[in-house]
Amino acid sequence: MTEIIIAVAAKVSEYLVAPIRRQLSYLFCYRSYTDELHNKVQKLGKARDDVLVTVDEATRRGDQIRPIVQEWLNRVDEITGEAEELKKDENKSCFNGWCPNLKSRYLLSREADKKAQVIVEVQENRNFPDGVSYRVPPRSVTFKEYESFESRASTLNKIMDALRDDNMKMIGVWGMGGVGKTTLVKQLAEQAKQEKLFTTEVYIQVSWTREPEKIQQGISDIQQNIADMLGLDLKEVAKSARAGKLMQRLKNEKILIILDDIWKEVNLEEVGIPSKDDHKDCKIVLASRDEDLLRKDMCAQECFPIQHLQEEEAWHLFKKTAGDSVEGDQLRPTAREVVNECQGLPIAIVTIAKALKDESVDVWKNALGELRSSAPTNIRGVEEKVYTCLEWSYNHLKGDEVKSLFLLCGWLSYGDISMDSLLRYAMGLDFFYHIKSLEQARYKLVTLVKTLKTSSLLLDGGVSRDNFFGPSRLLFMDADNKSVRMHDVVRDVARNIASKDPHRFVVREDDEEWSKTDGSKYISLNCKDVPELPHRLVCPKLQFLLLQNISPTLNIPNTFFEGMNLLKVLVLSEMHFTTLPSTLHSLPNLRTLRLDRCKLGDIALIGELKKLQVLSMVGSDIRRLPSEMGQLTNLRLLDLNGCWQLQVIPRNILSSLSRLECLCMKQSFTQWAAEGVSDGESNACLSELNHLRHLTTIEIEVPAVELLPKEDMFFHL
């Protein structure tokens, strides 16, 4: 019994004494409580900053921040603010840590203790098992209203019937280039959306399928396009596992996938698209010029041909584009004959109608004569009359600048072309010879692109992604100006025109017959299967050299550049350079140099390129910029985005680039030196940028506010 009484007394004492001890500690250990609160606030602030870094990265990717994360950040701000208020109360009631008023001391200590415990609880809630963000599916694709033609309506209805058929999984749409396949499949997607046949509709252009070396990258693009529409994050998934993850998700979706402009077989299972009968809710529509490809290689169950427009349909489209003036007594007979020359092909009709809109009768008659008398041209998959119409439209573009840009766009790519890349190349080629600033060149480029779009020779591009920190888009923030593309038929015509004198744009798929390139001005070489480059490439007229799909082990001979003194643009990507080829200094007119995704050692030779205006080393493995770069006093744009390994930028290099207008260093160099460090070996400091009076566009990362110069920076915060 005595033991029980003792045990109870001990327990009662514990419950009574401990609270009394704590209450007394509020009076006599006041400083320890406030110090503890201060320490916990600092730790919480660091945790908050760490979360904000992740949140900022997610926001820049376009992800949505999870509500629980935002609530946590709000709670951190709230408790931190309360702690700051308590600090103010302490300063009012106490002097140098001494509080003569026992009541104030007690209340402040108790409040500090409570808030410290709350902070501990907030810290413990920082764990976010699902991450701080999630992918947001883009808004469902909405296509514009398309002109309805009776001949097309019947075809569209037949395809819609096929989509409603549970036994129909793979459907083909075929027809010659320019006949309107793309328009029809987009219209198909819109109608399927209106009828709510699917939860998601995905339209993807796969023009890259005509270039075998781009297949793997193209597959990744398809996967990412579909994943984006589904809100599925594939970034953390290994490439080898993406197809399986995507297929698993698609088997739970009712989805329409449209692959447009197919040139070669695409292994859908390799992409992650279920193509067999085990998932009937995933319907696939394929569009191509080649019916056999769709039936035999892609195993389309039914293929629908797209025919030319009927005569009255063609006239209706032409009149709608050119305006009602074509109905005038004087113009109508000639306009009718011009439409007949287009042979019912929408791309020819629209292009010619836009070019002749608001012109006089004489101009119309002249156009008719030129269309009829043009020399026949044979391009695979392009109707002769389509070629004639598009070539005529090109010939009647006003000004060499816009013509040169048109040919450059046709030569560069089968897919989207970033406006940023166009600007860099156009600057290098001196398309805008009378324009001296990067900003003015951008305005000019946007204007020329608009001219080509108005003529239907250029189209808006899609939303492209920076898979490897591709060209900075700081100069083109407007979504409508980020990228452009060409209709596949327009591109084929542009390439054919570009291949002839006096342009001589050359696209080569191998290393044979190098002698045939000696008169060329533009050369694009696919180096995938090239074992070695020639000892010396003699191209005295060459202005643009683009080497694609280069093997990292491919060696560029030191004498390779000796015979190309007029070279203005050089693009070398994904190569290993211990040192740059010694004859690079023999390119006195080089204005744009791209060494993207390269492994770079000693690049001091760059300092010899005195006319260089654009230098890009995006995503390259480079540790140190050479001091010789300070000699590039004509440089307008320096892009070091994604140079993760860059640790050293010697002092005074950046401040020497006196003409620099755009500096891009996203996820790159962060080792800025602090102000006042006089060591000659130290890194660049931020105050150097104040010397660049032409600098208008900048993207850098500063890890600590202490690195900012005391005087005002060159930009306004």
From TrEMBL:
Task: Tell me one GO biological process term.
Answer: defense response
Q: What's a Gene Ontology MF term here?
A: ATP binding
Please verify whether the record's keywords include Nucleotide-binding. yes
The AAA+ ATPase domain covers 167-312
Entry keywords, A to Z: ATP-binding, Nucleotide-binding, Plant defense, Repeat
The record's annotation in InterPro entries points to: AAA+_ATPase, Apaf_helical, LRR_dom_sf, LRR_R13L4/SHOC2-like, NB-ARC, P-loop_NTPase, Plant_NBS-LRR
Q: Which family does it belong to?
A: Belongs to the disease resistance NB-LRR family.
Q: What PANTHER family is this protein classified in? A: NB-ARC DOMAIN-CONTAINING PROTEIN-RELATED, RPP4C3
Name it: Disease resistance protein
Instruction: List the gene name.
Output: VvCHDp000210_60
